[in-house]
Amino acid sequence: MQAAGTDHDIVVIGGGINGCGIARDAAGRGYSVFLAEMNDLASGTSSLSTKLVHGGLRYLEHFHLRLVREALIEREVLWSNAPHIIRPLRFVLPHCPGFRPRWMLRLGLFVYDHLGGRRALPPTATLDLAADPAGAPLKDGFRTAFEYSDCWVDDARLVVLNARDAADRGAEIRTRSEATAIEPAGERWRVLIHDHAANEDYAVTARVVVNAAGPWVGRVLARTAGADGEDNVRLVQGSHIVVPRLFAGPRCYILQNSDRRVVFAIPFEEDFTLIGTTDRDYEGDPGEVRITPAEILYLCAAVGAYFRTPVSADEIVWSYSGVRPLFDDGSARAQEATRDYVLRQAREADGAAMINVFGGKITTYRKLSEAVLEMVEDHLGARSGPWTGNAPLPGGDFAVGELGTLARRFADERPFLAAAHVRRLIRAYGTRAVRAIGHAASTSELGRHFGADLYEAEIRYLVAEEWALSADDILWRRTKRGLELTADEAGELRRYVASLVEAEAARDAPARSRSPDMRP
Ligand code: FAD
User: Fold this and answer.
1) Contact call for residues 192 and 224 (beta carbons, < 8 A)
2) Is 64 in a helix, a strand, or coil?
3) 323-381: per-residue pLDDT in tens?
4) pLDDT at 519
5) CATH 3.30.9.10 in the chain, residues?
C-alpha cells in the first residue's frame, strides 16, 4: 500500500455502493479523491440487499413515479456496463384471489413496461400455470400468473468494481479506515482517519466531503464540528434467508402477502433459493443487525402459502440482515417510506462543502452519483461532464449477449476447469477472469485448494486487486463461497489470508510511513 497524499478535492466517507459510485464518477472527471471505508467495501447495506436492479413494481402503488422511471431506465444502462455481474431475470407473479385484482396487476405491469427504458428486456406476458412449467412447484389453485422482467446483480461485486475503477482512475481507496472527526480548516475540511488495520491515526483535507455512510450517515454528521445535527435518516431492517433450491428453472417468483407486501424467491448461486425481504423499523447499531425469529417465521410462511414444498427454519443454510438508510418522509409504515434518495448540504464553511446522502437504491447509485457530482461542480468548478452511462465496469467490456461465448472460450482454453467453476469465474470477473486465476494450465497451477472451487490464485488476486483483507471478505462479499466451504475449510482460509495480508503489509511497511503533517 502506498502512503496517502494529504490534500484532495473530495473525501468520500463510506465504501458502499453510493460512496464507491461517487468516487468512481469523480475520479473519472479528474478530481482527486480519497475514500475511507471503516470496514470492508460493501460490508454495510450494499452486500445485504435483495440484489435486484429493478424499477420497483411495488413503488408504483405509492406513486413514486420519478424513482420508478429513473430506476427502470437504469436497469439496461447498468446491465450493458456490467453484463458479467448483472443479468436479466424473469419474475413470475401469481394472481392470488383475495389479493390485488387482475386488472390492477395488468395495469401496474403495463405502466412498468412503458414508463421508460425497456429496450432489450422482454415485455410482460400472461402465464397459464396449468401449462407453463412455472406452475409446477406451486400449490393447486394458482391458475394465472404474470411474467415481467427486471435484472439481478451481485451487489457486493458491483461495489468492488466501482472501487476498482475509481482506483484505476486515480482515487485512493482506504478500507478499515474510519472517519472519526470532521472539522473545518480554513477553506477546507480536515477529516481525521483511524486506520484499524495499522492502528494509527492521520488526517486528510478536502474542499468537499461527501458523507455516504448509509445507515451511519447520522453518526458521521454527529462527528462533524458545527453540523446542524440534521439527521433525516429512517433505519428500516430487511432480512433474507437462503435455503437449498426450492424449484427448477431460472425464473424468480414474486409472492403477494396478506400485509400487502411482496416476498421474492430467487434462484441463487446454482444450488440455492434466496427468500426475502422484510421491513421493520430498526434502532441501534446498523452493524449489529440480525434476523429475528419473527422474520424467519414470516418468510417461511410467505413461501409456504405458495409452494407445494414448505420451508422450515431448520432448512436455512444462511441468512442475512441489512438496514435501509431511508430518507425520513414521515410515513407511518416502514414499507411505505420512500426509497428515493435525497442529497442535503449540511454546512458550508468558507467555501468548503459537506454533502450528505440519504436513502437511494443499488439500482439508482449511478444517477445519485451524477447528482452529487453536480453539487461538487458548484464548489470545485466543472472538469468534464457525466461519463459513466456508457463506460463498462472492470471486466464488463463485452456485449450483453456475449456472456456465453466468453465462457465457452474461457472453458476451451482451460479444459481442466469444471463447467460450474467457469460459469462462476466469468460471472464474477468477466473479461478479467484470466487475471483472477492467472495463466494456470492445470488445476495444480491454481495453487492450494481451500474447498469447493476456491484456489490460492483467486485469493491472491482478491487480496492484491480487490482490497480483500480477511476470509469473510472473500467468502461473503467478493464471492459467495461461504455457502460451500465447511467450517474447517473456512478456518484454513482464515489462517492463510491472515498470513498473506501480514506478509504484504510487512513488504509495504516502508511505503506506509507518512509525512509529519498527516498526523492528527
Ligand atoms: P452502505 O452500503 O451501508 O455503505 C455505507 C458504508 O459507510 C458502510 O460500508 C460503512 O461501513 C461505511 N461507514 C459508515 N461510517 C463510516 C465512517 N465513519 N468512516 C468510514 N466509513 C464509514 N436496492 C436495490 O436497488 N435493489 C434491491 O433489491 C434492494 N434490496 C434491498 C434489500 C434490503 C433488505 C435492504 C436493506 C436494502 C435494499 N436495497 C436495494 C437498497 C440498497 O441496498 C441500499 O440503498 C444501498 O446499499 C445503500 O448503499 P450506501 O452506500 O448508501 O450504504
Assistant:
1) no
2) coil
3) 998 888 777 777 777 788 999 986 665 778 999 999 989 999 999 999 999 999 999 99
4) 44
5) 87-153+234-327
CATH, range 7-45+156-232+339-390: 3.50.50.60
Lowest mean pLDDT among 26-40, 59-73, 256-270, 480-494: 59-73
Matching CATH number, 87-153+234-327, of 3.40.50.460, 3.40.50.2300, 2.30.29.30, 3.30.9.10: 3.30.9.10
- Residue 191, C-beta contacts closer than 8 angstroms, at least 6 positions apart: 11, 13, 36, 179, 181, 182, 203, 204, 205, 206, 209
d(CA 213, CA 348): 19
What size, in residues, is the chain? 520
What is the position in ligand 1's atom list of the atom closest to the CA of 324?
Answer: 36
Q: What is the pLDDT of residues 31-41, one digit of tens each?
A: 999 999 999 99
Angle between helices 17-28 and 155-168 (to 10 degrees): 30
Task: Give span(s): CATH 3.50.50.60, the chain.
Answer: 7-45+156-232+339-390
pLDDT digits (tens, 9 = 90+) for 170-184: 999 999 999 999 999
Mutational pocket test of ligand 1: of 12, 22, 46, 85, the residue with most ligand atoms within 8 Å of the beta carbon? 46
What residues does CATH 1.10.8.870 cover in the chain?
403-512
Ligand 1 close to Cβ of residue 366 (< 6 A)? no
Q: Is 212 in the pocket of ligand 1 (CB under 6 A)?
A: yes
What's the burial of 186, exposed, middle or buried (CB within 10 Å: 0-12/13-18/19+)?
Answer: exposed
Backbone conformation region of residue 395, classed left if phi is above 0, alpha if psi is from -120 to 50, else beta: left
Predicted TM-score (pTM) of the model is 0.96
| Residue 94 CB less than 6 A away from ligand 1 | no
Please name which of 46, 29, 95, 85 lies closest in space to residue 374, comparing C-alpha atoms. 29
Work out the number of other CB atoms within 10 angstroms of the CB of residue 495.
Answer: 10
Contact 395, 431 (CB under 8 A): yes
Indicate the fold that domain 403-512 takes in CATH. Answer: Helicase, Ruva Protein; domain 3 (1.10.8)
Alpha carbon of 137 to ligand 1 centroid (Å) = 33
Q: Are 30 and 384 in contact (CB under 8 A)?
A: yes
